[in-house]
Design goal:
Layout (H helix, E strand, L loop, with lengths): L12 E3 L9 E3 L5 E3 L6 E4 L5 E4 L10 E3 L5 E4 L6 E4 L6 E5 L1 E2 L2 E2 L3 E6 L5 E5 L16 E6 L5 E8 L2 E6 L5 E6 L4 E6 L10 E2 L23 E6 L5 E5 L4 E5 L5 E6 L9 E7 L5 E6 L5 E5 L10
């Protein structure tokens, strides 16, 4: 029987107050909590909720972040384009890629790292400004960087490729198509290339037309970040609807958190789990100047174990 159930908005609390653009949160193997922050390479959110800012990116600011198996943080630089790697102990930053197959990285968005050490990352669009890609164009892609540094594009023609996730078996890569308002599932072949995609679960809402926005944003389905819990539910943030939903293994959609009044959770972009039991939940936001923290009814899937 599933333990998945809604989380009361009132049970969430603000941490990391004063952080700028905390798009994503990642919890390290040592339990320390880090968030993307436009003021530095990455910011540690200390146990008392305060911030410790570390390092600086050469351009732009961090967006999606994730730990590799060596305890370093891979940072997708949405505003600047490149993909970076950051050592939280020294503050050192290295740039892993500025282009792939001759194609410049313009909007690196979200990285995940598999057990073999491959880095998978989305590049949302070539549009400038990026908001022009809300028209639904298919110019997003996913690229992979192998442990030896070789990089290649593994999926093309995506509608604003955004958050990524790997399932427990790491047999599939899941990709949020923001303007497709859905999630795609790609089988990962033995040679780490991707097979043909299929929709995972239903379309999660209506498209968003910035020229004619709806009066009720709760119906919009722009998917942003995603992540699995230990029961196999894929949690997905709906950035304009102010919702976090979960797609169950049976394909049912459950609303886990919602804030129709924009009172606390505004434009949620990513979720992460931590804590001794894996049930401390963190919600990042492209808009809020804080990260939300609460207790999850289900523990998060620990990556690369």
């Amino acid at each position: 029987m599933s333990n998945l159930q809604p989380i009361p908005l009132s049970s969430l609390r603000k941490i990391g107050l004063g952080i700028l653009r905390p798009e994503d949160v990642a919890v390290g193997p040592d339990g320390r909590v880090w968030a993307s922050d436009a003021n530095c390479a990455c910011a540690e959110i200390l146990p008392d909720g305060s911030l410790r800012r570390v390092g600086q990116l050469p351009v732009g600011c961090g967006n999606g972040i994730n730990f590799d198996r060596q305890g370093r943080i891979v940072i997708a630089n949405f505003e600047g384009g490149p993909l970076h790697r950051f050592d939280p102990n020294t503050g050192a930053v290295e740039t892993l890629a500025t282009e792939v197959e001759g194609r410049k990285l313009t909007t690196s968005n979200y990285p995940v790292i598999d057990r073999a050490g491959n880095i998978w990352c989305s590049n949302s669009t070539d549009a400038s400004p990026w908001q022009a890609a809300l028209d639904g164009r298919r110019d997003g892609f996913v690229f992979r960087i192998r442990p030896d540094g070789r990089a290649d594009i593994v999926a093309r023609d995506l509608q604003f490729a955004n958050g990524l996730a790997l399932d427990a078996e790491q047999s599939h890569l899941f990709v949020c198509q923001t303007t497709g308002c859905n999630v795609l599932r790609f089988p990962i072949r033995a040679d780490a290339t991707l097979g043909p995609p299929e929709p995972y679960g239903p379309t999660l809402g209506d498209p968003f037309d910035p020229m004619n926005p709806p009066a009720d944003m709760s119906t919009t389905g722009l998917t942003d970040g995603c992540g699995f819990d230990v029961e196999g539910n894929l949690w997905v943030t709906l950035v304009m609807a102010n919702k976090v939903v979960a797609i169950t293994p049976a394909g049912k959609v459950v609303t886990v958190i919602e804030d129709p009044d924009n009172s606390l959770m505004l434009q949620p972009t990513n979720i992460a789990w931590g804590g001794a039991d894996g049930r401390d939940l963190y919600v990042g936001s492209i808009t809020n100047e804080y990260v939300l923290c609460g207790r999850s009814p289900v523990g998060g899937l620990v990556p690369n174990v």
